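User:
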Amino acid sequence: MIQFSEVGKSYPGGNEALAGVSFSLEQGEMVFLTGPSGAGKSTLLKLIALIERPSRGQVIVNGQNLTGVRRRRIPFYRRQVGVIFQDHKLLHDRSVLDNVALPLTLAGIPHQEIPKRVRAALDLVGLLHKERALPITLSTGEQQRVGIARAVVNRPPILIADEPTGNLDPELSFEVMQLFRRFNQAGATVLVASHDHNLIRRLGQRVLGLRAGRMVTPELQGEPHAGPA
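Assistant: Predicted structure:
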């Protein structure tokens, strides 16, 4: 489903964010990506979402080499990847319903179908009663769940999340991760970047380690199935 082969990413000025990164995720896996701040986790996720392109190597998603995806085709490619950010990136002048509906609107889904699909996504994250609220009136945890609903509303086969629990307390963090587990159990391939080692150990999924832009053995104690595939 997702394969990195000797992937490197360099930015102007000589900053090398990734160097020789290789790993693979099978369809239907849930995997954590861990490492210290600045390790390259966000850059790696941006390559999967085609927010960035690799400088070297190959990124293959669902059999497609992302190097060959033309700019005009990127919106079509992104329909298969749901992205969750730590800072939510919600539109604060629009209701919760309108925020979650945005990917469907951009994808050209018939207008009459959108409310039903949005409400189904909000129901999954326990926020159906907040559909008319503005994001600014929600708690941090609720805003994060709106971001998750927006990422899954068009039922993408791949979900990637960049430190989705970074601003949440342990109880809310576990609740959010349980949502990802539910989506994974429904068939989605899930990759979550997180520095919360306790939470990662608690969930017991495979772990990939990243340090200074390179794949390493994850620095967790007693985690199952650790290391690149």
